[in-house]
């Protein structure tokens, strides 16, 4: 069990589509445990595997809040099989885009098909925060971020700030060693 590092915008891996999972085995269940640990530590209500630099179609989520007991859920190869015509708006944030929040409009209800931790097929209908979070996580599996649902202007501002943050946080780039002058 381990807390993994969460990759941040503008890491290009966040723009990559994740690969389907073919086997649900002990190694995958260990990865799921690491994802729960990383999500609860952050803290966040959802996490896609690609956010810990593992581009596979796997998400974890726990949209309970307050005093309600935790409800860790894992979805392997999740697919939206139905979306309501009715839309709803929620404020969203993303662990890969720290300190940025915006209102995003999405279908209010969705039905999702997936494999669970035991490799069994499941289906679930979700609404409210759970529906929002599932759509946010499934977007990650397709290289899509919540900022892609905003106007170009808002997205541009957020990307600009994220790039600035990345520059400030990154170690100084190594300079190539200069050839010594006059060395034969
Ligand atoms: O922790 C998270 N909170 C959140 C709030 C509103 C809509 C979506 C989310 S998901 C986010 C964690 C995250 O980045 N998951 O990919
Ligand atoms: Ni996110």
Explain this structure to me?
- It is a single chain.
- The protein has three helices and seven strands.
- It has 184 residues and is of the alpha+beta class.
- It is 26% helix and 28% strand.
- The chain has a single domain (12-168), classed as Alpha-Beta Complex (Peptide Deformylase), CATH 3.90.45.
- The longest helix is centred in the last third of the chain and has 18 residues, at 152-169.
- The mean pLDDT is 94.
- A five-stranded antiparallel sheet has the order 1-2-3-6-7.
- The structure holds ligand GNR and nickel (II) ion (NI).
- The site of ligand GNR has 17 residues, from strand 1, strand 4 and helix 2.
Question: What's the layout of helices and strands?
Answer:
Elements: H1 26-41, E1 46-48, E2 58-61, E3 73-83, E4 87-94, E5 97-107, E6 109-115, E7 121-127, H2 128-141, H3 152-169
Antiparallel strand pairs: 1-2, 2-3, 3-6, 4-5, 6-7
The structure holds ligand GNR and nickel (II) ion.
Ligand GNR binds at residues 44-48, 51, 90, 92-96, 132-133, 136-137, 140.
């Amino acid at each position: 069990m381990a807390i993994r590092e969460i990759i941040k915008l503008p890491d290009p891996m966040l723009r990559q589509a994740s690969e389907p999972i073919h086997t649900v085995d002990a190694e995958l269940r260990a990865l799921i445990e690491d994802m729960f640990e990383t999500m609860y530590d952050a803290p966040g209500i959802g996490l896609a595997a690609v956010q810990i630099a593992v581009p596979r179609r796997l998400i974890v989520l726990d949209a309970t809040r307050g005093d309600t007991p935790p409800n860790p859920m894992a979805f392997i190869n999740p697919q939206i099989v139905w979306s309501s015509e009715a839309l709803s708006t929620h404020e969203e944030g993303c662990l890969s885009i720290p300190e940025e929040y915006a209102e995003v409009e999405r279908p209010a209800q969705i039905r999702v098909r997936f494999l669970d931790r035991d490799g069994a097929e499941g289906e679930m209908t979700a609404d409210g925060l759970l529906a929002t979070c599932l759509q946010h996580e499934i977007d990650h599996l397709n290289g899509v971020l919540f900022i892609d649902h905003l106007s170009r202007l808002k997205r541009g501002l957020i990307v600009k700030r994220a790039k600035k943050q990345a520059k400030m946080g990154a170690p100084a780039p190594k300079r190539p060693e200069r050839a010594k002058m006059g060395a034969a």
